[in-house]
Design goal:
The protein is mainly α and 261 residues long. The protein is 64% helix and 0% strand. Helix 11 runs antiparallel to helix 12 and helix 12 runs antiparallel to helix 13. The termini are far apart.
Length: 261
Amino acid sequence: MKKILLIFLFPISLFSYEKTVCIDCHLKLEDKALREAVYEWEKSIHAKYDISCHHCHGGNPKDEATAMSPEFGFIGIPKYEEIPEFCGKCHIGVKENYLKSAHSKNLPDGPNCVTCHTYHNQREAGIYLINPDLCGTCHDYERAEKIRSALLSTEEYIYNLTKRNDNLLYHGFNIEDISKKVFSAKNSFRSLTHVIDVSYILAQTESIKRELDNISKSIQKNEDIVKKRKIVGAFVIILFLISACVFGELYKELKRSLERS
């Protein structure tokens, strides 16, 4: 209850992360927008994985004197049309697909990364981001709905593979390699969204589905081992119960024989 109360009182502190001079300084600034940038970032998927200010904007996060020094790679705030390159430093596949899209061709006035994902409160990528409220802000939802439909079955496939693989962890399997393969396929698949082209997405999705089929077979092998373990375990329990009954009857018979003698 105390923890819940603290969250209501200080709703921005959802994740633990490394404190930097960037954060300390921004929270002391009079400019509300510069303070809000930290509050928004603290709620983001970036903060969850400790991806901080300097990872995107450069600079020295440990020293106030060089925090905004070009010598430490500080690049500050990019211009609107530079944002795809800015985010694309890490999201390479997404950038490549975005640059093929109608969104990109309409720059500098068209939408870019922050139009859908916001500047600092970036939400976890997912098909839920394709919705009438978000897409309908700029244009009709019909085209976006077709793209969503094209992505939906594969998105569910990835979700189920993730769930099946995670379940194997509870049975003692090392799931790291398969998790990496699922993560890689998921990233490749979700980056397709940014092409904004139904035909292209469907063509590429078939290739990704074949990759997911191979991952599914690897998971299935481990699931089969789990089934065999359960069958053997059930057999051992039944054998134990039968043995217990037999020994119980033998003990009773022996006891009766001793009483008669």
